[in-house]
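ESCALATION

Customer reports they have been waiting on this structure for their group meeting. Please prioritize. Original submission:
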Amino acid sequence: MPPDDFASRTRPHCLANAKGKVRHVVTLGEIVLIHDLKRQGLSVSAIARQVGRDRKTVRRHLECGLEPPIYGPRAPRPRQLEAYEAYLRERVAAYPDLSGKRLLREIRDLGYDGGYTILTDFLRAARPPRRRVFERRFETPAGRQAQVDFAEFRVTFEDEPDVVRKVWLFTMVLGHSRWLWGRFAASQDLQTVLRCHIDAFAAIGGTASEILYDRMKTAVIGEDAEGVVTYNRSLVALLNHYGAIPRACRPYRAKTKGKVERPFRYVRQDFFLARSFRDIDDLNAQFEAWRTGIANARVHATTSRVVEAHFLEEKPALIAHPALPYSAVLTVERRVSHEGMVSVGGNLYSVPDSTRRRVVEVQSHPKEVRIFEDGRLIAAHPLLEGRNRRRVDPAHRKAPPARKPEPLPPPGTASVGLRPLAFYDAVGRRLAEERAR
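Update from on-call: job pushed to the front of the queue and completed.
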C-alpha cells in the first residue's frame, strides 16, 4: 500500500489524546515490532517493557493495526499576553534595551495579570536582533611588547610527599612571535620579580620597548581618579636600565593580555599535569627542557609559524642590552639574632662570629644578599628561594679554642687528684663539729 494510503487511513483516535497533546513519535518499525511480539504471545505489559513504551501506547497501536500515526499540531489556546503584544513590540522597537522587569510593570498597569516567563519568551523573539561586533585581534609589531604575569600552581614534591606546596609561574611572552620564557618560584615578592625580569631579558638577548602587566602588586601600586597609574619604583628603575617602559592593562579587560594568559592553560595541560618533581629545582629543569624542546619549537596556532623561527626574525627589532649589568639595590637595617643570623625576606643568613654590632645594614641585590657592618662588607650570600630557609657560611663560624694541657707535676712529686665536691663538703662539716665541741 502506498505511504499516502497509510496516512489517509489513520484513525483520529490514534493521533492525539483527549487533551490534544502531541505524543512522542512512534516509528513504523516499532509498530511492526509491537505486532510481532503480540503474535509471539507476549502480554501488553511485556511488550511495553521490550519496546520501552507505555502500555496505553502499545494497546493503542495494537488496535490501530499497521498504520503509522499522523501527529498534528497542538490545538491553539488563548494567550494572556496577546492583547499587549502590539504595545510590547512598539516599545522594544523604540528602546531595544528596556528590561523585561520594566515592561512587566508597564503592562501590569494596563491590566496584564499573567506571568513573567511568558513575557520574556515573547521579548526574546520580539526584540530587534543585535548587531554582533566581532573582536579584533590585536597584533603587536616586532619588538614592541612583552607581556608578564604570574599563575598559581599547587604541587607535592617527592622530597616532601606529605606537603602540598603553592608555587607561582612567572612568564614573559613576546607579543609578536609568542616566544615564551618562564620560571617557577616559591613567592611573588619584589626580589623574585626583579630576578625573573633580569633572567628573562638575558634569555631573550634583548628587551621589548614596553612590558604589559596585569594589576600585580609588585608592578602596579595604584591608580588615581584621572587614570594615572603609579608603578613600583624598583621595577621602573630596572626597566629604565634596559630601555623599556611599563604599561598596565586596563582593569577588567583580561583580553588585553591574552598572549600571556592563554599559555598558562597550555603549560598546565601539556607540561604540568601527570608529572612528578623532586623539588623546585627539578621542576624548573623539566620546565626549561619542555619550554625549549616543545613550547617554542611548536607551530603556534594563531601565527601558524614555528615560534623559535619567528622569534629569530623578531630579535633584531628588540632593544639591545646596556653594557653594564643592573646593580640597583634595596637597603634596609636588620638586627642580628643571638644565633648570629639576619632575617631577609623570610629567610635567615649568617654573619661572622666576629660581628660586634647588633644592627647591621643589608643590601638586597637581584641575586645576592650583602651584609655590612659600619660600611664594611662582612657577608655575601646567594639569594634563597622561598621562605623559612637558612644559609650558614662555614667561614663565619670559628672553631672553639683548644684547651691548654695542664702542666705535668715535677718528677718525684706525688700528683694530687681532684676529688668530688661532696668530699670537701663532708670534710667542712666534720671540722665544724669538732670546733663546736
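Sent to customer with the following note: Residues 3-64 form a domain with the Arc Repressor Mutant, subunit A fold (CATH 1.10.10.60).
Escalation resolved.
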